[in-house]
Write a structure and sequence with these properties.
two-stranded parallel ribbon, single chain, four-stranded mixed beta sheet, 8 strands, Rossmann fold
Length: 192
């Protein structure tokens, strides 16, 4: 999130950030967003235990109130560790991006770096993708490869992958903003 907001502030991405929403009141990203002059809001998910659609409807209401509509908005997930309801995904179809610390379709879900090391992967990386109703299964926009070193552990590999995430996520948002992504089924093709 910080990399995206800083790229916007430096006018590298032609969009205006409207709001940063977190489900955790102590999320580090809230302070970063405030420091960068972006409105923040906490919608605590504890109040909505086992009520995913209700929670997402609350988020949608706040997004729309802040000008992030299904017609012209973009929702970027960063550190949002909740599965989004089908209602939200249908409403913002092809307007929700996520970053995942693996080369999808390998190692979706949690602990991707740990899975890569345990499975003896020689390469890992990160993927920016559209969110669909599956877990990390939407059309892939960009990927960056990171070599898995013999002495890597989850922490060292995660750190190198995070460096790449900070590069490709803002780039994917820029491609989206400039209408340089064409979707064809499960494929996201980049236009010149």
């Amino acid at each position: 999130m910080e990399s995206i907001l800083k790229a916007i502030k430096k006018q590298r991405i032609p969009i205006n950030p409207s709001i940063v929403i977190s489900n955790k009141p102590d999320a580090k990203g809230l302070k970063i967003a405030e420091k960068l002059g972006v409105k923040t809001l906490v919608i605590d998910s504890k109040e909505y235990k086992n009520k995913r659609t209700q929670y997402d409807k609350k988020i949608i209401k706040e997004l729309e109130k802040n000008g992030v509509t299904p017609r012209n908005g973009l929702v970027c997930l960063a550190g949002f560790m909740r599965i989004i309801s089908p209602h939200f995904i249908k409403k913002y179809k092809n307007r929700i991006l996520n970053i995942h610390p693996a080369l999808l379709p390998a190692y979706p879900g949690l602990n991707a770096q740990k899975q890569a090391i345990q499975n003896g992967a020689k390469f890992s990386g990160c993927t920016v993708h559209f969110v669909d109703e599956g877990v990390d299964s939407g059309p892939i926009i960009l990927q960056s490869v990171v070599k898995v070193r013999n002495n890597d552990n989850e922490k060292t590999l995660s750190k190198r992958i995070l460096t790449e995430e900070h590069k490709i996520y803002p780039e994917a948002v820029k491609l989206f903003a400039k209408k340089k992504i064409h979707l064809s089924g499960k494929r996201a093709m980049l236009l010149d």
